[in-house]
Design a protein that fits this description.
- The longest helix has 13 residues, at about 65-75.
- A 4-stranded mixed sheet has the order 1-2-3-4.
- By secondary structure, the protein is α+β, with helices and mostly antiparallel strands.
- Helix 6 (about 120-125) packs across helix 7.
- Strand 1 (about 95-100) and strand 2 (about 100-105) form a beta hairpin.
- It has 8 helices and 4 strands, in the order H-H-H-H-H-E-E-E-H-H-E-H.
- Mean pLDDT is about 75; it is low at about 55-60.
- Pfam families: Integrase_H2C2 (PF17921).
- It comes from Gossypium australe.
Length: about 160
């Protein structure tokens, strides 16, 4: 079977573009395996691989322990957050909810105060993610809006 694959690759050689060294290395590596490639339409493929799906940044945008502690600490220093917490505890607002000492809005978006440059730190986390690379303004804003909330977020980004 390997000989057949190599013969087919040699036959197609005039029709393909020149391979980069990385592509050539991968081609040699894949030639060692006995496999067949088969097209499956998306509707018939129930086990779609991760690479063909839209990348979700949920794991990237989740706040980590130290950041959560800073956000929680910032709530006690921000007068706006204090008044929102008071309204939530009195049941006078449905927009904000206090859960495990953190303030959330509708859709379970975490409220971030302006205390100690927290907003800048959260934006940095979403923009400079090691998993997503340096995202542009629109992608960073979308990533922030998925998990966080603060007034005039778009202006800050």
């Amino acid at each position: 079977m390997r000989e057949l694959v190599l013969a087919l690759l040699d036959y197609l050689k005039p029709y393909e573009k020149k391979l980069s060294p990385k592509q050539a290395h991968r081609r040699v590596f894949l030639a060692k395996f006995d496999f067949t490639m088969e097209y499956k339409p998306r509707c018939g493929n129930t086990m779609v691989d991760v690479l063909s799906e839209k990348m979700e940044f949920a794991a990237i945008s989740q706040p980590t322990g130290s950041l959560l502690e800073l956000i929680q600490d910032g709530l006690s220093h921000d007068p706006t957050a204090k008044s929102l917490i008071k309204l939530s505890n009195e049941g006078k607002t449905r927009r904000f909810l206090l859960d495990r000492e953190l303030l959330y809005t509708h859709g379970h978006h975490l409220y971030v105060t302006y205390y100690a440059k927290l907003r800048k730190e959260v934006m940095k986390e979403c923009h400079d993610s090691r998993w997503a690379g340096h995202l542009g303004m629109h992608c960073t804003l979308a990533l922030l809006k998925d998990q966080y909330y603060w007034p005039h977020m778009g202006d800050d980004v």
